[in-house]
Amino acid sequence: MTQILEYLENHPKEVKIILGITDKQLKKLIENAQNLEENRKYAIMRPIANAFQGADWLKRSNIKRIN
After folding, report:
1. Given phi > 0 = left and psi -120 to 50 = alpha, else beta, which region is 63?
2. Does 41 reside within a domain?
3. CA–CA separation, 48 and 36 (whole Å)
4. Residue 15: Cβ-neighbour burial (10 angstroms; 0-12, 13-18, 19+)
5. What pTM was computed for the model?
6. Across the chain, which distance is largest between two alpha carbons, in Å?
7. pLDDT tens, 2-49?
């Protein structure tokens, strides 16, 4: 996601032309991409933070183990 966000921020004219969107729509697209990136970071850090709150953090969390 970071590469996409960087491209959106660094090439706004090209993005607007390719997608056929307005300045307002581009701003909203960038905001949404930033929010997704923050959520991704939170999802990665959540298990680490929970680990310091007790050994049974996985049982309490919504994280499912994928085999």
Report:
1. beta
2. yes
3. 19
4. middle
5. 0.60
6. 51
7. 788 889 889 999 999 999 999 999 999 999 988 888 888 877 777 776
Residue 57 burial by Cβ neighbours in a 10 Å radius (0-12, 13-18, 19+): middle
Domain carrying residue 28:
2-60
Sign of the CA dihedral running 25, 40, 37, 14: negative
Token duo for residue 8: 């959106």
Distance CA 28, CA 48 (A): 31
- Pick from 46, 42, 22: which is nearest to 34 by CA? 42
Q: Quick count: other Cβ atoms within 10 Å of Cβ 9?
A: 13
Domain for residue 65, yes or no? no
